[in-house]
Amino acid sequence: MPNPTEIVPELNDITATLFRATGNRSVPRTTMSLVHLRAGQIVGNTYLTILNTGFLRKAGVSEERITAVSSWQDAPYFTDAERAALSLVEATLQPAPHGQERVTDDLYAEVAKHYDKKALATLTIAIGQINFFIALAVIGKPAPVASLADEQWD
Question: What is the pTM of this model?
């Protein structure tokens, strides 16, 4: 797929708005990148995993933490707040057991223990944001890059 912003230039406005909405500093940028990296891993998308790994490296996150995102449940490298955020993205992106909710009241309560109302809304928007980009990444197949400044599209 060619660069979708060249075909639908309004996409630039949507992207900028999403980044403004999630960049309000109510949730640490590192947490956002951990959540986005986990989302990329869940859907098996190299573009998203390399991009968010690059963001985490630039932020000074250790290789141990980056590598352990795929197995965060038993890794000692994450705070309780980060674990709650990772649980939330997994619940959102993975199918729930038959007849059960994806995001249970217990999970929501756990996340709400670590994030105030604004941060929880921001985290929810960030999960929606990565879902938006998953479609572009999976369908469009941009070149894996470690920075948004790098050439991604044919």
Answer: 0.92
